[in-house]
């Protein structure tokens, strides 16, 4: 605190004189003798004088003037005057009356004059004789100041509590007064401020159903049997009637919401006026916006991070989940039945909850009549369903089957039950319920009978295999399969029933206003849908038996894999990988012959669909325990580690388990993979490891490998190394914790010392590469000079090529025996998985034919079209980008979801690995990923439509083409509409095989066409020089490689060694091409514009021109 004082020379006489000062912030004096009750002060405020001098406060005391005592007066060093602060008097509640000849200090309560200061010159000097009233000034703070003082003294206690303490005299020392909060305490706002309370609405704002719908999305921790993970909750604001739609992915909302709104509009003969959601991208996207605009629906959004504004849907989410959780706990069902439980909870709550504003149920408000709930039954209870003529019964056979109640049909007035006899989910009204006992067996009973079931399955399969003399790969038998017993069907580990069909597929609540609410007795037992029955019956006699039973009661969308094939399990896949073809086929027949075995394996496969999130969760599942044991067994076989005592000087790295389900191309779970990884993020470079970089093959190198193989008629094979990193030998000392859940009980204080690398370590990729490279070099291989992932072996003129990509290896040679020798060499050293001829590598489909090799990404392209919603009947585009397309930003162009746009561009960029025809179009669209607009998204979608019409197109590497290297270069001058930069396009051929290409925007602005072409030629030259060095590893030596350019000025610059005024503005780094031209490494040649193949990489083209260049690049339809 600083107070500015104007010093006036003092005399002995004025030391006892006090002045009223309006500019002084505190009472103060420079004479210690004026003060009584003096207290020294070391950390008092510093006073700044008019000359800029800073003087400290030496102490604090009181001043006695007549009968008046003024407290809290500062003693300031070298102060020449005695000053009373008028502002301090005013702050303590006193009035100051200033007149021309005097200044009066007045008590505002008694209105009496306490002290007078007479004017002398320009100063008001205190008249000591005027202090006749005994008073202690400034001894207590004002009420407001006192309230804030005690508020701070009590650690910012609230004023309500302060008043209770004072009023009830609960403490000693607190002045008895009323403490009022006047103003705001900024410190309390920083430390205590909370969200604004949003009061509930007293008056309902809607007057009819469908006037406003609230929507929200919740995610389940478990995935249902049909793959559903999300629930879309829709609540009508007026009636509180609720619908729940179950989804596999959030993106499905773009189709499900419009479909539901259209159905409701038709059902009620009225339209939806308003929908209210949060800001999730599943609600805020182009599709929902366009639909709402077309239907005139207002889309309201809650404030960001304020779910209270969408409280209707949020509360309904909680209510449904709490009810479903209680039902699952009651029946002891697994979480994968959450869809069944939520479906039933939604059905009952629509009929049982009361809407407060109308004192009626949601069903009555929405449908118009009171609901009948006499048919409600306990979820999961035991029941009996009448056969009713579905099967032929003898005279004394039971007429009913035991079943388990699973809820209510969403498409008819019937109960949904699981029939233990037929092993199907049925819908029927002829059901008798026994609600006194749940239909779910105890957990111990489940585990015990599951063990017995698995043993019986194994014996049955082995016995059937011994009786099968012939190998049959397909089942065309007309015989009915034997059905398992009632107990065997339901007694499976942790999953008692098969997946729900109607509830798990779509909307959980469907209103049928025209029929009674209770299931009608006029209806007979029904299957899930009539359409599915027709589908099953049309297959004829060749599809009778087991196959017909499953298809008939389950839609094809809910069946994993082909309906006519056996269920794929981890054990079955492992057996087929090790057995021969005949033995594998026999196992297939054994499984096909016994439905009991298939049912048990089916549920084992279903168990593997759940990926544990924690080690504790995995340890509860026997399947994942086996997977973890397999991983640790791999550690023992590879001698990865050894136990050592833990000392304080060791840095120990933690470990964790990572769980993943391995799927095949059909989406079937074929393996549970548990991987133990090290927490490498705790490592420090230079202390814990030195080298971490491991060479990885470029796609250009892979294509060069295949081009060379096609020319030399090589047969290319592929293999991969199992747990490759566990083979990498470490040069550093690394210690890790014991794996969670598998600690050695007697050695809990010991740690593992790694002999070989562990996944997650920073140096693991490098260690694996060094180990593999060392092994190959020791066996006569030669490492590539440029591509360190290429190894060659020349055995008396027999050439073997090996290309490495982490743990995937491709190799080829003319000599098949040489390839077999290499395969055996690798198997003797590492645990390998032989895959045979190369057909799929790094996402590239490779087809080896007699006259060449065909490279495509057909499978990936089809998956991408499905992923981004390109329908089969949608018209395909003939070119990826129209010739008049100008990509830029306009104010009228609205933004789109950047995450979705980036995902689309990323997928297209990956497709360019074998599709150079879309390289330019994708590259241009990729320039707008930071702020994509609708026009950009439509342009990218057109590329997809072009891919749809050319999905089978790929690169063709003919056998009978030469091996000479050639390049093409072109540039589009100032083609970018944003910054007027040019686009470089180049491509390189090995014979007629296109092995490398790119299309990129130049980093600097070219001032002429010649400069743009010259820069592009330099880029092409760098790639040519790299390919020349790469070909040396193949024993191919290129000299004076031609680069074709259609700009004569650019060619002339490369031959002119003198810089002149026309080229001096070009950056020096672009002139390196002239040096290589002079050395004879490359040469720039003139080519006509019509023969410039790089033209396709720089600009949009007409259809005829585009197709001609595409064919010239070697892009053809997939040979049949």
Descriptive report:
- The protein is an alpha+beta fold and 1120 residues long.
- It is 31% helix and 23% strand.
- It has 30 helices and 46 strands.
- It has a 6-stranded mixed β-sheet with strand order 9-2-13-12-11-10. It has a 6-stranded antiparallel β-sheet with strand order 32-33-34-35-29-36. Strands 3, 4, 7, 8 and 14 form a 5-stranded mixed β-sheet that branches.
Shape: extended
Strand residue content: 15-25%
Which whole number gives the mean pLDDT? 77
How many DSSP-defined strands? 46
* Termini gap: 91 Å
Give me the Rg, rounded: 43 Å
Stretches with pLDDT under 50, minimum 5 residues: 1-15, 437-505, 510-607
Give me the secondary-structure category. alpha+beta
Query: Sheet bearing the most strands, described?
Result: 6 strands, mixed
Overall helicity: 25-40%
The spatial strand order of the largest sheet comes to 9-2-13-12-11-10
**Tally of helical segments:** 30
Oligomer: single chain
Give a concise summary:
About 30% of the residues lie in helices and about 25% in strands. With about 1100 residues, it is α+β, with helices and mostly antiparallel strands.
């Amino acid at each position: 605190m600083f107070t500015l004082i104007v010093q006036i020379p003092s005399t002995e006489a004025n030391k006892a004189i006090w002045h009223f000062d309006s500019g002084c912030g505190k009472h103060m004096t420079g004479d210690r003798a004026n003060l009584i009750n003096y207290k020294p002060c070391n950390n008092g405020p510093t006073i700044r004088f008019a000359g800029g001098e800073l003087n400290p406060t030496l102490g604090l005391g009181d001043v006695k003037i007549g009968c008046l005592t003024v407290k809290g007066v500062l003693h300031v060093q070298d102060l020449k005057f005695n000053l009373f602060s008028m502002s301090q008097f005013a702050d303590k509640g006193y009035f100051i009356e200033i007149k021309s000849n005097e200044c009066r200090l007045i008590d505002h309560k008694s209105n009496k004059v306490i002290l007078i200061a007479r004017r002398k010159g320009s100063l008001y000097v205190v008249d000591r004789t005027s202090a006749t009233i005994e008073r202690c000034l400034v001894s207590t703070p004002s009420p407001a100041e006192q309230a804030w003082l005690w508020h701070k003294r009590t650690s910012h206690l609230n004023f309500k509590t302060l008043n209770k303490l004072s009023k009830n005299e609960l403490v000693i020392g607190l002045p008895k007064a009323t403490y009022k909060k006047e103003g705001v305490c900024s410190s309390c706002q920083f430390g205590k401020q909370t969200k604004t309370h949003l009061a509930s609405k007293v008056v309902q704002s809607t007057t009819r159903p469908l006037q406003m719908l609230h929507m929200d999305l919740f995610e389940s921790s478990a995935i249902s049997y049909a793959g559903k993970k999300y629930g879309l909750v829709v609540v009508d604001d007026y009636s509180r009637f609720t619908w729940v739609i179950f989804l596999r992915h959030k993106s499905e909302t773009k189709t499900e919401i419009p479909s539901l709104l259209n159905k409701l509009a038709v059902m009620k003969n009225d339209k939806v006026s308003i929908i209210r959601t949060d800001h999730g991208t599943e609600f805020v996207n182009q599709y929902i916006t366009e639909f709402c605009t077309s239907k005139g629906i207002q889309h309201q959004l809650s404030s960001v991070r304020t779910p209270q504004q969408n409280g209707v849907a949020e509360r309904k989410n909680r209510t449904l989940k709490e009810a479903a959780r209680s039902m699952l706990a009651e029946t002891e069902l697994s979480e994968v039945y959450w869809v069944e439980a939520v479906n039933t909870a939604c059905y009952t709550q629509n009929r049982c909850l009361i809407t407060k504003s109308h004192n009626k149920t949601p069903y009555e408000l929405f449908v118009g009549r009171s609901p009948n709930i006499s048919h409600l039954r306990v979820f999961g209870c035991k029941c009996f369903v009448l056969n009713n003529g579905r099967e032929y019964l003898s005279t004394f056979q039971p007429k009913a089957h035991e079943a388990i109640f699973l809820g209510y049909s969403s498409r008819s007035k019937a109960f949904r039950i699981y029939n233990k006899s037929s092993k199907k989910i049925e819908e029927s009204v002829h059901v008798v319920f026994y609600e006194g006992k749940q239909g779910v067996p105890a957990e111990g009973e489940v585990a015990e009978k599951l063990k017995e079931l698995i043993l019986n399955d194994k014996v049955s399969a082995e016995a059937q295999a011994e009786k099968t003399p012939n190998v049959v790969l397909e089942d065309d038998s007309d015989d009915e399969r034997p059905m398992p017993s009632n107990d065997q069907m339901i007694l499976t580990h942790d999953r008692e029933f098969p997946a729900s069909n109607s509830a798990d597929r779509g909307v959980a609540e469907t209103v049928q206003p025209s029929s009674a609410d209770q299931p009608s007795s006029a209806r007979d037992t029904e299957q899930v849908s009539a359409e599915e029955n027709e589908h099953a019956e049309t297959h004829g006699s060749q599809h009778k038996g087991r196959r017909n039973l499953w298809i008939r009661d389950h839609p094809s969308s809910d069946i994993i894999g082909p309906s006519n094939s056996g269920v794929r399990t981890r054990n079955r896949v492992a057996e087929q990988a090790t057995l021969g073809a005949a033995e594998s086929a026999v196992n297939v027949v054994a499984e096909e012959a016994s439905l009991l075995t298939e049912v048990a394996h089916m549920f084992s496969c279903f168990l593997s669909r759940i990926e544990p999130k924690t080690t504790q969760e995995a340890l509860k599942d026997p399947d994942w325990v086996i997977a973890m044991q397999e991983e640790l067994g791999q550690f023992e076989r590879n001698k990865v580690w050894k136990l050592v005592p833990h000392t304080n000087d060791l840095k120990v790295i933690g470990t964790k388990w990572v769980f993943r389900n391995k799927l095949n191309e059909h989406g079937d779970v074929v393996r549970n993979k548990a991987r133990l990884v090290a927490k490498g993020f705790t490592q420090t470079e230079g202390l814990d490891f030195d080298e971490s970089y491991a060479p990885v093959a470029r796609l250009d190198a892979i294509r060069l490998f295949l081009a060379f193989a096609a020319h030399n008629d090589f047969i290319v094979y592929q293999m991969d190394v199992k747990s490759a990193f566990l083979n990498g030998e470490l040069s550093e000392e690394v210690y890790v914790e014991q794996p969670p859940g598998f600690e050695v009980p007697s050695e809990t204080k010991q740690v593992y010392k790694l002999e070989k690398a562990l996944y997650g370590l920073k140096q693991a990729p490098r260690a694996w590469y060094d180990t593999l490279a060392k092994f190959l070099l020791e066996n006569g291989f030669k490492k590539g000079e440029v591509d360190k992932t290429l190894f060659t072996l020349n055995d008396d003129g027999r050439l073997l090529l090996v290309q490495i990509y982490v743990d995937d290896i491709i190799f080829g040679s003319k000599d098949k025996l040489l390839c077999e020798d290499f395969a055996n060499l690798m198997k003797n050293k590492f645990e390998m998985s032989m895959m045979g001829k190369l057909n799929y590598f790094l996402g590239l489909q490779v087809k080896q034919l007699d006259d060449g090799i065909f490279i495509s990404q057909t499978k990936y392209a089809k998956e991408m079209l499905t992923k981004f919603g390109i329908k089969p009947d949608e018209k395909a585009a003939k070119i990826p980008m129209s010739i008049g397309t100008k990509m830029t930003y306009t104010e009228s162009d609205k933004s789109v979801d950047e995450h979705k746009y980036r995902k689309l561009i990323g997928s297209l960029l990956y497709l360019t690995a074998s599709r150079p025809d879309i390289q330019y179009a994708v590259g241009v669209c990729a320039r707008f990923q930071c702020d994509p607009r609708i026009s950009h998204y439509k342009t990218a979608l057109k590329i997809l439509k072009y891919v749809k019409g050319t999905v089978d197109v790929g690169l063709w590497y003919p056998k009978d083409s030469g091996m000479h290297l050639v390049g093409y270069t072109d540039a589009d001058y100032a083609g970018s509409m944003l910054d007027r930069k040019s686009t470089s396009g180049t491509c390189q051929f090995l014979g007629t095989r296109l092995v490398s290409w790119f299309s990129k925007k130049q980093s600097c602005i070219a001032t002429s066409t010649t400069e743009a072409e010259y820069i592009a030629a330099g880029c092409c030259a760098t790639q040519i020089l790299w390919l020349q060095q790469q070909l040396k590893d193949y024993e191919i030596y290129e000299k004076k490689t031609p680069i074709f350019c259609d700009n004569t000025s650019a060619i002339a610059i490369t031959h002119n060694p003198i810089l002149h005024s026309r080229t001096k503005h070009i950056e020096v780094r672009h002139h390196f091409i002239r040096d290589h031209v002079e050395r004879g490494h490359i040469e720039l040649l003139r080519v006509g514009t019509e023969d410039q193949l790089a033209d396709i990489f720089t600009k949009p083209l007409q259809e005829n021109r585009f197709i001609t260049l595409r064919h010239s690049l070697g892009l053809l339809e997939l040979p049949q």
